[in-house]
Automatic annotation (TrEMBL):
Domain CRAL-TRIO: 117-278
SMART domains, per database record: SEC14 (SM00516)
PANTHER family associated with the record: CHROMOSOME UNDETERMINED SCAFFOLD_125, WHOLE GENOME SHOTGUN SEQUENCE, DOMAIN-CONTAINING PROTEIN, PUTATIVE-RELATED
InterPro entries for the chain: CRAL-TRIO_dom, CRAL-TRIO_dom_sf, CRAL/TRIO_N_dom_sf
UniProt keyword terms in alphabetical order: Coiled coil
Organism lineage: Eukaryota, Sar, Alveolata, Ciliophora, Postciliodesmatophora
Protein's UniProt name: CRAL-TRIO domain-containing protein
Keyword Coiled coil among record annotations: yes
Family matches, as PROSITE patterns: CRAL_TRIO
Stretches of the chain forming a coiled coil according to its record: 317-364
Organism per entry: Stentor coeruleus
Length: 453
């Protein structure tokens, strides 16, 4: 693949331009579970006195051991190893040394030099990136069903995994704002005997050594019962940070992950609304906003305006932001007007419903038997109370009702919602006073007669 094609892929992976006006909240800067908050953002930050002291001690150990660091590293990079070792200087130095060794083994020189070697693996999708969450963090998908050790070697898969994450670190993040990624691992309901455990364990170990403090949240999905049982046994011994960051789901939806995502940023197979991928490279970032609110009404960003922004790759990053932000402001203004109109309609609808309920409440039957007039009752269809109700059992059907309740005709099965306003003379009614209830029993016959008791 030529350099121009690679440059286009890199440009498509940059965070949206509105990242410039985004300020990460505290829960993104720190992970507050456990005894001490765990820092997630390390670049362009003001460190505490304790953090600065630990960095100073680690630097002294590095100088003492004459360990060479990459030229572009700063105090923030060193602080990651301090957090990884729970603020123990010796542990931090050991982790730092292991990181540099693992990185040099995977990438002897520039990491882009292995691109042609692992290009076919990237297309098959054992590891790939798709979408961003509401805090602009990219989503890493690991599909264990795509690992084929008969076709590719362990070293090739390890290089592919490190390449994807190194590419993400270089081109998908934003220092001081977005420094982590989310991860979904699809087990595919494979048992422990069906998984390449040694390969996965080694790959995971290298990724943990090289990419310190990069994982925000992770979830295992489509897991078999055996793995769920093992995790339930180990969970009491795990620290709160690990428990909160890593979850295991039986189905295909990672609830602790997708709650941060607009559905249009996740594939359908994982609970989102974005189309499922067939080709997994280059990384895919859907042309939808990352915001969570009103996602049911979200429309794709206008392609013409977006394409216009990226016409000239030489344009500075700050100049791109102006046009993108103006584009999204126009879209947001239109959506805001629609929201205001819908809110007015909903308010008027609620008002009408409330008035209707109030009107029905006022029309409830409040009259006492002494207020009912005789002239409105048709005595032709009323007969005296029988001594035995069993003889009428096959001809009548009992229905208990109260005024203003729905009355169901047993013959036609039609529902009438109008209040019962028939007025009768209390002197001509036979009322059973032995029942301690304000209800009355109405025996409705299929014949054109009825008995009131």
């Amino acid at each position: 693949m030529d350099e121009q094609e690679i440059d286009k892929i890199i440009a498509s992976c940059h965070p949206p331009q509105d990242i410039l006006v985004y300020n990460p909240p505290y829960e993104v800067l720190f992970h507050a579970k456990g005894k001490h908050p765990q820092r997630n953002i390390f670049k362009n930050q003001i460190f505490t006195e304790v953090e600065l002291e630990k960095i100073r001690r680690l630097k002294e150990e590095i100088k003492k051991q004459k360990l060479k660091l990459p030229k572009d590293w700063d105090d923030g990079d060193l602080l990651k190893f301090v957090y990884g070792a729970n603020f123990k200087t010796r542990g931090a130095f050991k982790a730092l040394k292991s990181c540099l060794s693992s990185y040099s083994d995977v990438f002897p020189e520039d990491y882009m030099l292995i691109y042609s070697k692992i290009y076919e693996i990237l297309l098959t999708g054992p590891l790939y990136m798709h979408g961003r969450d509401c805090h602009y963090r990219p989503l890493l998908i690991m599909n264990f069903a795509k690992f084929d050790l008969k076709k590719y070697t362990f070293e090739q898969y390890l290089q592919a995994a490190c390449f994807v994450l190194e590419f993400a670190s270089k081109h998908m993040l934003f220092p001081g704002k977005v420094e982590n990624w989310m991860c979904i691992s699809d087990i595919g309901y494979r048992g422990l005997s069906d998984l390449p455990l040694n390969t996965l364990r080694k790959i995971t170990q290298v990724l943990q050594d090289v990419f310190k403090c990069r994982l925000a949240y992770s979830a295992l999905i489509n897991t078999p019962k055996t793995m769920l049982f093992i995790y339930s046994c180990l969970k009491p011994f795990l620290d709160p940070v690990t428990i909160d960051k890593i979850s295991i789901a039986k189905g295909n939806v990672a609830t602790n992950i997708i709650k941060y995502f607009n559905p249009y940023q996740i594939e359908e197979r994982y609970g989102g609304k974005a189309p499922n991928l067939d080709i997994f490279w280059p990384p895919v970032f859907p042309n939808y906003p990352v915001a969570l609110d009103d996602y049911n009404e979200i429309k794709p960003l206008e392609k013409k305006k977006i394409e216009k922004v990226y016409e000239d790759d030489s344009m500075p990053f700050e100049k791109h932001s102006e046009e993108i932000i103006n584009t999204e402001r126009n879209i947001n203004d239109e959506e805001a007007n629609n929201e205001i109109y819908e809110e007015i309609q909903n308010t008027e609808r609620k008002k009408r419903v409330k008035e209707s309920k109030k009107k029905r409440k006022n029309t409830k039957l409040k009259k006492t038997p002494s207020d009912i007039e005789v002239e409105e009752i048709n005595l032709e269809y009323i007969e005296p109370l029988r001594s035995s109700m069993q003889s009428e059992k096959n001809q009548t059907q009992e229905l208990i009702f109260s005024p203003n309740e729905n009355i169901i005709d047993a013959h036609d099965e039609d529902v009438y919602s109008e209040p019962f306003e028939e007025q009768v003379d209390p002197n001509n009614l036979i009322i059973d006073t032995t029942q301690n209830s304000t209800m009355c029993n109405l025996h409705i016959s299929f014949l054109p007669k009825c008995v009131i008791s």
